[in-house]
Specification:
heterodimer, A: 287 residues, mainly alpha, two-stranded antiparallel sheet, 75% helix, 3% strand, B: 235 residues, alpha/beta, Rossmann fold, six-stranded mixed sheet, four-stranded antiparallel sheet
């Protein structure tokens, strides 16, 4: 039963990792941009949630109605004002610029919020649990997983059933020809980043409710996000969810064997999959 | 005398240090079909890329309906009513046949062409509308590329080498459909390697040679000798 419990907890944890990864996957798919600052943007969203909840007394989940639009607006401005200028045939400039952005974000957060670990208080949601078939499942992990499925379904639907999604795919296929269709790629990239950071906001708030956070933890979230994207296969959002679940299960099973192995087990499974299937399990885009 | 819809004034174009076009002067009048001929590397495609905004030029080197559009981006040019059917078709592989057509219509210009009128023109596309665009034959892909451009209801449509890589029987079909397309009040510029095809559908012809206009004339009066001199640059 303990093993089944570990397995189920891992699957649910995978929902959070899928949320970390969905934004990364989306912007890589649309504009081939690898955003090194993604983890720090997740942490930024958590801190924004902290500010909103302490200033207004709102429940952290309710604070999403403020933080999601705020992060989306930041994403659009960041893309139009900075990142669009770095995109081109060379993939190095956007890597360097987002790396710089990561450093700036970390130090900015340190300056404003200090290095003290913080936590979003969700009034008992963190510890609530429901008994399911002999297992005790946390309400928060269940909620997180449900939100992850909903977010990925929503992104998938946007991609395949709306004019905006059509523009995303067209720009991803061929930027020049997409321009000929009257699509301003800079604007479309801005919208993609807005959508990605909107998802990041959800991930940041859920992270902040689940565990304590401080300005330095962005890098770790970035790695988990990357691993979920690569395991699932580039450009496939449902694959990203599967990647998150595999990573989550590897970590909880690893922790079950030896508590010190939690993170390591995740990395090992990632490396094994990378060695056997370099394009991930369900690739849409050849790298 | 019909109005001029498009004018090029001393159009230069560069790829880095390489100059591809040298002071091209050219005009298209309302409702006419203009043919551009010339050998490989003469600058035909570069000219199409310049007009459609994929290459940026000096503002006043390209004028459309009296306005300077030389420095506009391709999406801005598309909104003004110029559509390009690019060389090599260049469909979006991630999009289905119908989505490729719909994205052409996303420009939002109203007019004769929509999914229905287009499927009347190319019925085979309606049959295959939900398949990936890459699974079509070359000729069908060319229909999608033409349809995608038409969906934006342009006033001026540019065809870049639409017969390239297609079987002769398919080329015949595509050219048979052209009069029906252009009779909707559109002006057209056709870039074509096949000189007799180009002359048969156009009213006037320009020949490019090494980035310069080497011949300009009415399609039914230019002689074979004039063309071969302009085409190959031999006296």
């Amino acid at each position: 039963m303990d093993w089944i419990n570990a397995l189920v907890q891992g699957i649910l944890l995978g929902g959070l990792y899928a949320l970390f990864a969905a934004g990364l996957s989306l912007i890589f798919g649309v504009m081939r941009l690898v955003n090194i600052a993604h983890g720090d943007l997740i942490v930024l969203a958590a801190f924004l949630g902290l500010t909103v909840t302490t200033a207004t007394g709102m429940h952290p989940l309710l604070a999403l109605i403020v933080v999601v639009p705020l992060m989306a607006a930041l994403g659009y401005a960041l893309q139009r004002g900075l990142l669009n200028q770095t995109l081109g045939d060379d993939i190095l400039p956007p890597l360097l610029v987002t790396f710089g952005l990561s450093v700036i974000l970390q130090n900015g957060l340190l300056e404003i919020y200090s290095a003290d670990p913080q936590k979003l208080n969700a009034g008992g949601l963190e510890t609530a649990s429901v008994p399911v078939a002999g297992l005790s499942l946390g309400v928060l992990p269940l909620l997180t997983f449900a939100i992850a499925v909903l977010v990925i379904w929503g992104l998938q639907w946007t991609f395949y059933h709306t004019p905006l999604g059509r523009s995303f795919r067209a720009v991803s296929d061929n930027q020049d020809i997409a321009q000929l269709m009257g699509i301003n790629r800079r604007h479309v990239f801005g919208l993609a980043m807005a959508l990605a950071l909107g998802v990041t906001a959800i991930a940041g708030i859920l992270l902040g409710i689940r565990t304590s956070f401080d300005p330095s933890i962005g890098g770790g979230r970035l790695i988990f996000g990357f691993e979920a994207v690569i395991i699932g296969g580039l450009g496939n959002l449902w694959g990203t969810l599967a990647g998150g679940v595999i990573l989550g299960v590897a970590q909880t099973i690893g922790a079950k064997i030896d508590p010190g192995w939690q993170i390591l087990a995740g990395h090992i499974v990632f490396l094994l999959i990378l060695a056997v299937r370099p394009n991930g399990l369900f690739p849409r885009i050849s790298a | 005398m019909p109005d001029t819809i498009l004018e090029l004034h001393g159009l230069d174009a560069h790829y880095g240090d390489f100059q591809a076009l040298y002071g091209i002067d050219l005009h298209v009048t309302e409702g006419e079909v203009l043919a551009i001929i010339g050998s490989n590397g003469a600058g035909k495609t570069t000219m199409m890329r310049s007009i459609s905004g994929l290459l940026s030029n000096r503002r006043d080197q390209i004028r459309y309906r009296g306005g300077a559009i030389g420095s506009l981006r391709a999406d801005e040019v598309a909104l003004k009513g110029i559509a390009l059917v690019p060389e090599g078709r260049q469909l979006f592989p991630s999009l289905s046949v119908e989505e490729n057509l719909l994205i052409g219509g996303q420009v939002g210009r109203q007019g004769h062409w929509d999914l229905k009128t287009l499927y009347d023109l190319f019925p085979i596309l309606e049959e295959r509308r939900n398949v990936p665009s890459t699974s079509l034959s070359g000729g069908q892909q060319q229909m999608v590329a033409i349809g995608r451009a038409l969906m934006s209801n342009p006033d001026l449509i540019l065809f870049d080498e639409i017969s390239l890589g297609l079987a002769p029987v398919i080329i015949k079909d595509i050219y048979a459909a052209l009069p029906g397309i252009i009779s909707q009040g559109m002006s057209a510029v056709i870039v074509e390697q096949d000189i007799s095809k180009a002359l048969s559908v156009s009213s006037r012809v320009y020949c490019l040679q090494e980035g310069r206009v080497s011949l300009e004339g009415a399609s039914d009066t230019v002689s074979r000798e004039e063309i071969s001199r302009a085409y190959f640059g031999i006296d």
